[in-house]
Amino acid sequence: MELYPVLKLxxxxxxxxxxxxxxxxxxxxxxxRRARNEAELFSVIRQVSVxxxxxxLPASLATLAFGIGCVVAGGLAWEAWLVLGLxxxxxxxxxxxxxxxxxxxHVLAFLPDPGRRRDAIRTASxxxxxxRIDYALLFSVVALMVLKPxxxxxAVLGLLGSGVACIVALALGGQRTAAA
Length: 180
Known about the structure:
By secondary structure, the chain is mainly alpha-helical. The chain has helices at residues 3-34, 38-74, 80-110, 117-147, 154-179. The longest helix has 37 residues, at 38-74.
């Protein structure tokens, strides 16, 4: 058996764990916030803070490593889909570790102090808005991997970029509304 199909399988499998697991947690958080169920929202954040570094971070790094392995083993050219996809994968992994993880830790740090409950709710809301931005980028990466646009496919690249920009604007607008 050749190495490329094995690396591609491992790349897709690790992406499924990362994207699917994280997306499920985001949906659970959004459902808890929409239901105004603070206990459930904080429970989801506790769960994410436990499985994030143990599952999502390793899965994201495995996705990146197996993707790079596919590039090398498959002798792939550095097309737009590949460069942007690998960059987006690295960006979302870093965003999760450097931005989402600290926000989740802040929420959990506020919980024992009843006087900080309002801060915990506000920070949890910010965390969910940022998670939506992260997943907009992540789903764009998945679209890049499936559609495989070249550098000349301006319409596809523009559509994906516009989609991410719209979700960023909506998430940040929702964050301002939630904070008010």
